[in-house]
Amino acid sequence: MGEMDVRWILNSLPHRYPFLLVDRVLELEPRRRIVAIKNVTANEPFFAGHFPGIPILPGVLILESMAQAGAVLLLQEMPDRRSKLVYFTGVDAARFRRIVVPGDQLRLDVEVLQLRARACRMRGTATVDGQLAAEAELRCALAERDP
Fold first, then answer.
1. What is the pTM of this model?
2. Per DSSP, which regions of 57-102 are E strands?
3. Among 6, 43, 87, 106, who pairs with 38 as Cys (CB 3.0-4.6 Å)?
4. Which residues are tagged catalytic?
5. Apex CA 104: angle with CA 61 and CA 46, to 5°?
């Protein structure tokens, strides 16, 4: 599948600014893997407090970026995706290897390890300029959105 921009992502995920943490999809193999981009910019609201004068992207937001990329992957081929939610239910073996700062571009690689009708286990990595920033195993549940 070709590259997909933020408009396509907005059509796939319920997240909106300031909590949409995926800017572009570079590669997508349905039910298998996704490669996405998160551009880290200085004007993001969490940098005001994390940390004043020393802006660092919080590690939990790197994990959330991976989880959102995984949600795009899972929802991509569902025709009724607007009626579905992907809930982040767990994280295992998370490791943070380098700090991420404004100006960095996170490359999010997420692959499906196990997919069931209502649950999924994925492996994600986040890199900056080819250097590993974070890695984790992510768990999520697929559910109907409340009406």
1. 0.93
2. 84-96
3. 106
4. 50
5. 40
